[in-house]
Amino acid sequence: MPRTPNPERTDDDAPEATAEWFAKARPASEVLADLLGNDAAREMLKPKRGRPALAQPKEHINIRLDADVVSAFKGSGAGWQTRLNNALREWLKAHPEMQEG
Question: How do residues 90-101 score in pLDDT, each as one tens digit?
Fold first, then answer.
């Protein structure tokens, strides 16, 4: 037996979705262009996977370092690559002649 809704908790602005409502529903790809325009619809429907793109993404390189340097940074725990990057950044601050530009 279906449960009768409590009239005090019924929301007229957001009624319960029924089978009839779902039968009338249309995919966003069919209705967004009419509602927002083609450009906005195309942007909203574009798949967005993964992390947002960075303005200045890190560059992947291969580098050979002395074992004791790598061991010291790895031994300091998780985040050692970030700390190594920060150490190199500090070195660049101390040697402004090495800066690009």
Answer: 999 999 888 875
